[in-house]
Amino acid sequence: MNRTEEIFLLTETKKMHFRHRKLFQTLTCVVLFLYSILVLYHSFYKGVSNAQNDEAKSKVVVKKHVFERTLAQESSFNDGYSVSMSTEIPSATATVKPPTITLDDVFISVKTTRNYHNSRLPIILKTWFQLAKKQTWFFTDSNDADFQARTNGHMINTNCSSSHNRKALCCKMSVEFDTFLNTDKK
Ligand SMILES: *[C@@H]1O[C@H](CO)[C@@H](O)[C@H](O)[C@H]1NC(C)=O
């Protein structure tokens, strides 16, 4: 290796070192930049989600108040027992009676037709009807003494057509509504 070659090599090595340093600096800058963007984005997103959380919380509180007001209004018509409802806002704490719904408040209506009495009613009478005999009524389109007896007189002849068109079904529906309105069911 002569002196010229040596100098040339040294220069080349220096150049390479310089290039590497520049590359390293550029990479560091890029990484720092990306990191700061990430931090900014994270803090921004956190702020947004906090704001959303607050909004959701206030909605829940409002809903809770509306619910309690409804409960309070309802309970003034009911004879339920009293419980204390705790709320997030102490000043809104109120003693309300929960609505008490029992089986006696339920009206169960079964729409049927004379052709299906024998094939469809026995299974109902053998099963869930046994749990709600007083709450269940059958709306049909004929007089059926057999099922009238088996349902304790809960077969109602609507005198409507036995066909399955809208008019006939609405006719039965109206009798169902009238019967429901004549009860004290909820
Ligand atoms: C069906 O007709 C009979 C006999 O006219 C009547 O007694 C009964 O009340 C009628 N049923 C309805 C739901 O109107």
TrEMBL record:
Keyword Protein transport applies: no
Any Gene Ontology CC annotation: membrane
Record keywords, A-Z: Glycosyltransferase, Membrane, Signal-anchor, Transferase, Transmembrane, Transmembrane helix
Signal peptide start and end residues: none
Transmembrane segments: 23-44
Gene3D superfamilies noted in UniProt: 3.90.550.50
GO molecular function: glycosyltransferase activity
Record's bilayer topology term: Single-pass type II membrane protein
Span of domain Fringe-like glycosyltransferase: 100-186
Protein localization: Membrane
Keyword Transmembrane helix: yes
Primary location group: membrane
InterPro entries: Fringe-like_glycosylTrfase (IPR003378)
Protein name: Fringe-like glycosyltransferase domain-containing protein
Upper lineage: Eukaryota, Metazoa, Ecdysozoa, Arthropoda, Hexapoda
